[in-house]
Design goal:
The protein has 232 residues and is of the alpha/beta class. It has a single domain, classed as Purple Acid Phosphatase, chain A, domain 2, CATH 3.60.21. Strands 3-2-1-9-10 form a five-stranded mixed sheet. Strands 4-5-6-8-7 form a five-stranded mixed sheet, with no helix packed on it. Helix 1 links the parallel strand 1 and strand 2.
Length: 232
């Protein structure tokens, strides 16, 4: 089975469309008879211009591929705001790019405090909200664990906390522990894929760099990378 794992999108539906087309071409030319899965590593919303378009594209899926969409910390922040009017939750989300998502939903950015859970739920709609709420935290295949941010080293997967799976950085990134599988993750943007013996970071900061990266696994060789860029 061939796996295409796509890094953090953050509202760049233009790049996601290019990447899906690039993956379809790659699979058609290299592995036309093999089953293929596209794994999206989370952080579909916030910061970029078209979070709504990204959600709708992911919900539609890619013809000929199984698609897996994991939850990222930005989806978690948005979902928390669908359930609460707590100013602390809203401030955290808006301060991390949620204002761009509100704009793409047609809400615009009003004075803080005038957005509430009902606004957001209505703008998303029942189908999108149900899809977001059902996003899994992890996916296992091809000797790898796919997760948004990473894991706590030394802790069994079934005992990992959702907060860490979505938010962890230093404790995971600096560890050289053998996790028993390759951890493929996003969350921490880098100029290029971060290739380590025990993990593979594939967030190349699409919203900042205009560059979206996908890792290709399952070819019985080192991971291969596909890159799409704005205007290229």
């Amino acid at each position: 089975m061939i796996i295409y794992a796509i890094g953090d999108v953050h509202g760049r539906d233009d790049l996601l469309a290019l990447m899906h087309a690039r993956i379809a071409d790659d699979h058609r030319s290299r592995h036309p008879d093999d089953e293929a899965v596209i794994v999206h590593i989370g952080d579909y919303v916030d910061r970029g211009p078209d979070s709504l378009g990204v959600i709708d594209r992911l919900m539609e899926g890619v013809e000929g591929f199984e698609t897996v969409c994991l939850k990222g910390n930005h989806e978690a922040m948005m979902l928390a705001c669908t359930q609460s009017d707590d100013s602390r939750l809203w401030s955290m989300w808006l301060g991390n790019g949620g204002d761009a998502t509100l704009a793409s939903l047609g809400l615009g950015r009003r004075l803080f405090g005038r957005h509430d859970a009902d606004d957001l739920v209505q703008a998303l709609g029942a189908e999108r909200l149900a899809w977001l709420q059902a996003l899994p935290l992890t996916y296992r295949a091809a000797g790898a664990l796919f997760v948004h941010a990473g894991i706590i080293p030394g802790v069994p997967l079934e005992r990992q906390d959702e907060q860490d799976l979505l938010w962890i950085r230093d404790r995971f990134l600096t560890s050289d522990a053998d996790h028993g599988f390759l951890v493929v993750h996003g969350h921490t943007p880098m100029e290029a894929p971060d290739i380590q013996p025990n993990r593979l970071g594939i967030d190349t900061g699409a919203v900042f760099t205009g560059r979206l990266t996908a890792a290709v696994l399952g070819e019985n060789q080192a991971p291969r990378f596909l890159v799409v860029e704005a205007g290229a």
